[in-house]
Each structure stands twice: as structure tokens, then as C-alpha cells.
Amino acid sequence: MTVDNGWTDVAGLKPPEAVKEPSRRRAQGDTFSDPYEWMRDKESDRVQEYVAAQNAYCEQRMAGLKTLRGTLFEEIRSRVQQTDMSVPTRMNGYWYYTRTQEGKQYGIQCRVPIRGADDWDPPTIAAAGGDRPVGEEIVFDCNEEAEGHQFFSIGGMDMSHDGRLMAYSVDVTGNERYDLRIRDLETGEDFPETIHEVAGGGCITPDGKWVFYTKVDAAWRPYCVWRHRVGTSADDDVQVYHDPDERFWVGVGISFDEQQIIVESGSKTTSEVLMLSVDDPEGEFKPFIERTEGVEYDVSFAEFEDEAGNIPVALVIHNVSNPNFEIDVIDMRTHQPPYTLGEGVCVAQGSLAGCEPPHGGRPTPQTRATRYQSISTLSDIPDNPEILQGVQGLRIEGIAMYRHFVALSYRADSLPQLAVMPKRAAKEDFLAGRPWGFGGIVPRVDGKLYSIGMSGNPSYDAPRMRYTTVSYTQPGELHEYDPETDTDVLLKRATVLGDFDPADYAEKRMWVRVRDGEHVPVSLVWRRGLIPALEGAREGLTDEVIEVPRELTLSYEDMSARYDRREAPMFITGYGAYEISSDPSFSVPRLSLLDRGVLYAVPHVRGGGELGRGWYEQGRKLNKMNTFIDFIDVTAALQRNGIADPKRTVANGGSAGGLLMGAVANMAPQLYAGIEADVPFVDALTSILDTSLPLTVTEWDEWGDPLHNAEVYRYMKQYSPYENVQDADEREREYGTRHFPAMFITTSMNDTRVLYVEPLKWIARLQEPDAEVDAVAKIEVEAGHGGVTGRYKRWQEISYENAWCLSAMGIEE
């Protein structure tokens, strides 16, 4: 329900104003008046009317950008190779690949039989038109499956070992509750049974006789595992595992060697692995190692092949004594269950610098001392491989052992890294008790910031390792590397059509010394010749440091008066939560911004994982304000150093990054001309207090528990965006300006991760006349947390959003 709004926006239109109804949230001796809590009744007529009114208002406001939206969409479409295919990947007896066809929204999953047991060279298959290869089989065509649905998402696919049966799950609403089915690929028909409302994923046993899947509870938490016999009614399914702890999410899958059914149960800070032999699917799951509060671990199994008898090993990655994890290799011939974390031979360990003492073990003088070191302290761990020496922010990510090679993934110097060595050499080092001789893979991206990682290696017997690299300005590449011969072959480079040339663009990572003295990395991307302040600048990973300005309280008007518009318009985006790193990636839509002279900036703020566990710990719970301050200080430093123009600076973030957007808008409105907040977590305190809401309890490990801890409550109340929006008069008193960034907000009615009601209440508060905020919201009625599905729909959405951002920068063509 809306009422007449006396305040008109910059376009002379009146935004819808929601009715206010008295409602109070009481907790920890505090009362918060919330006039828009009635919007939580999703099915009510007045909520539906309000959503329709907001969408109508958004369309009115965006009408003048229709031409720009169309231009941006055509720029994307003209640069994408729309009819294309992936490099085939061998799995058991088939080569699998994905086709895309011009005009179709989704990819088509295909396969062809292998040519023989030693067939490890992917077949050459024409991407466009022509005859299909002999034996090609369409495994799954999402375009056909999605017919009649506005939204379509695959939760997962899993094959029996012989490739005949496939378990798959689909979601057609966006609420992340999937229907699971089993298909006979020989006949193309589904089995009669359908299992409703499961979590995404699930697995089918190698013999194709059983399917294991997870279900979600009323709070949308995957909490239990069920067993289903293929070809029988789902009514006969049996629950085989249940985790009663509301903080833990449960998943199930088949081990890499196809010998174990694996259940993994984990919270944000604790994990446990349970196993059951595939030969005994009706047996009882047993933990590999019992869970310990505050300890995360994972385990995989492999063998060192040997003529005198193979050596079975367990590869365990854990943080019982090292917050940045270590990898232990356990010789299963000499170690017997029950196992403990820390036994075996440690082959790699992360840096302790800047980390809190480990939760699972007794802190030592060393761990206590290293907590007070800078995260940037260079690692010096004698037992580590040589490649891990002398780097900062060292975190061990994982290890994978194949028949012919061993690969190590880790983070160092704020970027993902990958190292590999021949399997025979690893066995020699293991038996000799010396550091393993890993060699790093350095991407061929001189002057670029890169992401690198293993990709497409599902077969244990593969003789060579596949990996991918990508940078902000160089499209992704798929390589195949043989560590025995040091041979590196490029299998595919993503195609960007038109006149695109990576040499026209530049990227660099520099550092900003923020107000508490920490150095925060920031990535900058731009088109050469369009950013005067960056002409001739050092590129790639640099040690260049700029300072945050001492004075951040200048008004928007005073700050803008200092600029002669030589500085660049800037699109600055961040996340900073859950230890998720914002690593380099390539984006075709981003080119349209860069070509218009926009500087693209990514502050790698605390709360993410770019510099390891310490970086995360300094931006969570009672350190969360660091995330917001880092983003603000990086923005201010770039502006005050003459690189970006505050009158043309637009910020962007989604989900937890949307909370970041709401916080910085309230804390430093003078730094931003506009802000785009996607599916934003902006009523954080209300949600985290209500245990009946989806995912609340699981989030306490990330944000703290304000329901039972008054200190956490008071801390979150300082930054929760919805309840900290100021009226224009209050901003003028605090910041010397009535300015507030123009706001573009997106949400989806079926989002289960950040409920629609949070951004809906926020937009209502921002559009109140006394707030004097120019805010619009685009609300998807047929989508979830990730927005719309289908590539052309996604291109339309990103064009819609980018058109608004460019307009906020003063660029409308």
C-alpha cells in the first residue's frame, strides 16, 4: 500500500511512499521502532501492490536510459562468441563438453565416447554448424528443459561410473529448493520417481543403484542426508545422517577415487567429514576425525604407486594448529584409526602472522607472538617447500594427488597460486622426509593481475594437469601442463569479438595505508589513454603505497570543488565477508565501462581472504567495521590523490557486499555520487536476532550473536544500514552537506539468502521525504539470490544496471 509522497525526486517524479505502521524490535534492553516490518507478509495484497509500484517507478526513472541500455546490450552481444563450445573433458568412458548456440539462453551438455583406454588428447569438435561428430550424444539441453519457466537453474548433475544413469536437480522458482530426478541416458527417459524440495547437488553411487541427497529444514539449512534406491518410490527413502546443530550445513558426494560416500558437515568455522564405503551403501557413516569446535579439516585418499606395493595415503588439510592451514600426509600402512589431526608428515603450512591463536589446540608462545605481527610479514618456515618461502599472506588451500602428478593450491602475495610436481618426485621426497619440490606455474600474463587454478581434472589417471588463468584484461585460458617434461599447451583462449585487444587495457595492484596503519590492496583497471593520472604508471602487482587523507569530513560540495574533472569517473566494487576473495576475473560487460573512460577499482577489504585467515579475522564479528572503513579509506585515497572524481564515483556490492554499500553510504555519503546495492543484506540486526528466519543461526559465526551477547548487539547496531539512515538535516549537521548518493537497489522476491523484505524496507526508508535521497529499486518477481537466469537475460540485466551507473557518473551515451 502506498500513500502520496510530498517529496519529488530529481526527475520531478514522486516515488511511492509506504504506509508506516507501529512495530518495535526489543532486544538487549534496546528498542528499535520499525514502521515497515509489515512488508514481511510476502503474500499480502499491499506488499504485492507496493512491489508493483516500486517497479513502475523504476521503469519511469529508467525510461530516459533506454537507448543507452540498448547500446550496452549490443556491445556485449557483439563481443561474445555466441556459438561456441568448451574443451572436452574426459570422465570415465566419455569426453564431455558444453555447446552454446546463438539465440539460445542456456548451454547444451554433450559427450562422445573415448577412442580407447589411452585416449587422453581431447577430440577436435567443430563449435559452429556442420555435422556433429560420430557418437555425439546430448546429455542435457537446458533450453528444452527450461521451456515454460521464467527461471531455470541446475543444482547439480552426477553420473554412474558407466555413464548410463544421471542424477540431476532443477530449481524453477529461485528459492534454491530443487526437484531431483534420475535419467536413463540410454533411453532418454526419467525414472518415475521425483524427489521434491532437496538442496542442490546429490550424488549417485558408481554402480548406479543408489542416490544420496540432502534436504533443507524450515530455515533453508541443508541439515540431513537421505538414501534413495533408484527405481523405487521416494516414500521409501531413508534418512542416514542428521546434524542437529543449526550452525552446520550438510553436503554429500562421492570421493575422488569413487571408493567412499562422503558427508561433509560444516559451519563457518568448524567442519567434520564422515565416510561410508560405496560397497556398503546401507551401512553407517563414521567420522574420519571427530569434530572439534573451531577446527576445519578435509581429507582425500590416494596412493603412491610402487612396484614393491602401493603406499596408500590420506591427505588431510586442517587448521588445528595453524589458522592458515597445513597439509599432512598420513601413511595408511603405519597409522591406524582412530586418526587425529596433526599426525602424519606436514608437507606445507601457512603463515601464522597476524592470525588469532588456533581454536582447536593450545596456544603456544609462538602463536601468541605471531598474532601481533603484520599480516604482510614474509613467511619463513624451514620445512615448507622452497616455493612457499618469502611470501606474504600465505594460506594453504588444498592438495590433489593423481597417478602422474601432485598439485598444490595456495594464496600468497594477495593472489591465488598453483604449484605442481611429478608424482614420482613427490614419493621420493615423502619417503626421504624432506620438503617437497613443488614448482610454481607462472601465468603468461606479464604486467597483469591473475587468477589461476586447476580446472577440468576429474580423472585420476590423467597424464597431464589442466589449469585455467585469467586477468582483469586478458580473457580466460585453459592450459594442459606436463610436469615430467615441463610442457605447457594452450588448449583454449576465450574469444572476444570485435576490435578488442588486451594491450589497450592496463591493470595494477597498489596499496592504501588506511587510518589504522594497515595496508589494503586495491586493484585498478583502465583503458590506456583515458585516465590521465595513470598514464605511465607501473602495472601488475606493485609495492606502491598511497596514504588515506587525514581529513574525511569535507562536504561533498567542498570535495568536488577541488577537482577540475581531469580525474576519472570511477566504478568501485567490494565484498569483504566469509573469507571470500575478490580475485581477478575478465568481464565482457566491463569493457563498455572502460571504453567510456571509467576507472574500475576493487578494494580487497578485510573480511575477505586475499591475505589469508588473518585478513578475514580482522573483518568479521567485532572487527566488522574494518571492512567498511577500508572501503571508505581506499575511495578517499584514490580521490584525494587525483585519480578519481568524487562527483563521478559510483560504488557497487551485492549480498554481504550490499551491506557494505549501505554502511559506506551512511558513514561517508560525501565520497559517492551513486551506489548500486544488489540483493543487499541491509536489515542485518533484525535478521540475525530472529532464529525463525532462514540461515540466521548459521550466520552467528560470521557476524556474532546479538541475541545472546549485548556487546555484539551494540556493535551491529552501529552499522546495520536500514536503521542508520539519516534525514538530510542530520547529514548536514554531521557532514556539512545534505548530499546522499543516488541509490539503485535490486532484489528478488524468491531470494532465500537475503530476504526481499530487507531491501524493500530500506528503499521505503530512503524514499521518505525528509531523507531527500534519490533511490530506485528493481525487484525481480521470478528469481532468487543470483538474479535472473539465461545469458541473454543476464546481459539485459547488467546493461540495465550499468546504464544507471554510467548515468550517475554523468555519462549517458
Automatic annotation (TrEMBL):
Matching Pfam families: Peptidase_S9, Peptidase_S9_N
Keywords of the record: Hydrolase, Protease, Serine protease
Chain positions covered by the region annotation Disordered: 1-32
Listed Basic and acidic residues bias regions: 17-28
Domain Peptidase S9A N-terminal: residue ranges: 16-302
Peptidase S9 prolyl oligopeptidase catalytic domain mapped to chain residues: 585-810
Full protein name: Prolyl oligopeptidase family serine peptidase
